[in-house]
Write a structure and sequence with these properties.
The protein is of the alpha/beta class. The protein has a single domain, classed as Rossmann fold (3-Layer(aba) Sandwich), CATH 3.40.50.300. Helices cover 27% and strands 22% of the residues. An 8-stranded mixed sheet has the order 5-4-6-7-3-8-9-10, sandwiched between helices. The chain has a two-stranded antiparallel ribbon with strand order 1-2. The protein is globular, with a radius of gyration of 19 Å.
């Protein structure tokens, strides 16, 4: 092959030079394993075709409870072969509602923070470094950039699905997360804005229809998860301490 033709081929296929390279007009090839989102329209917009494992993913919420758990449901069901950790959620997790989504309560661990964000961040880092959980969902309102870097680094030590829930206003802040999605309410589902991804900028949100929860019409029948524990008392059981 002539030299000019070889250079042209390399420019059109930058991954041939290094797997971390991609054209601005194309989605990056995921350097880590991904978990299928369960939504073909969303998977087609994500590098690797799914939720990345072993990295920090941010979901920036217009408000809590707009469908973020239903959005993650297919991936959480797959990840629930190992335990799934809910860390500092804004509401008490409801066992019956989780079961209705296909998430067995026996595989779910609820860790409540004691009011100090440092405890929740410490617990998150221990869960990620332990490698014992299939997924970690962490809710935080304010978090410093250095703590984001620590969590991102800890996530890379394993293959846990790690999603950090933050307010929508945090989209203006810098973050080491390779994937940042802003979620807003929409009739029949949610609008997803791609704040950051390894690929071309998408100017219009993606509307994703979400089926209603089976228990949305019967919320009074729900019951909270039976076991609760402060972060620092539960983590030794996770990491074998």
């Amino acid at each position: 092959m002539p030299l000019t033709a070889s250079l042209t081929a390399s420019l059109t296929a930058p991954e041939s030079l290094h797997p971390s390279l991609w054209l601005a007009s194309q989605l990056a090839h995921a350097a880590t394993r991904c978990l299928d989102t369960g939504y073909a329209a969303l998977s087609a917009q994500l590098p690797g075709g799914g939720w990345p494992l072993g990295t920090l993913t941010e979901l920036l919420l217009q408000q809590h409870g707009i469908g973020e758990i239903r959005l993650l449901r297919p991936a959480l069901v797959a990840a629930a072969q190992r335990q799934v950790v809910l860390l500092a959620p804004p509401q008490i997790p409801q066992g019956l509602a989780l079961a209705a989504l296909g998430l067995p309560p026996a595989q779910m661990i609820w860790i409540r923070a004691t009011g100090k964000s440092g405890d929740a961040l410490w617990a998150a880092e221990q869960v990620l470094r332990s490698g014992c959980c299939g997924a970690l969902l962490l809710w935080q309102h304010n978090i410093r950039s250095e703590n984001l870097r620590r969590l991102h680094l800890a996530a890379q030590s394993g293959d846990t699905l790690f999603c950090l829930m933050r307010p929508l206003a945090a989209a203006q802040d810098a973050s080491p997360a390779p994937l940042r999605l802003a979620l807003r309410t929409a009739p029949g589902g949610i609008d997803i804005e791609f704040v950051k991804r390894r690929g071309p900028q998408r100017d219009t949100p993606l509307f994703l229809p979400l089926p209603p929860s089976l228990l949305q019409r019967h919320a009074s029948l729900d019951r909270p998860l039976p076991a609760t524990a402060p972060a620092r008392s539960l983590l030794p059981q996770l990491v074998g301490g």
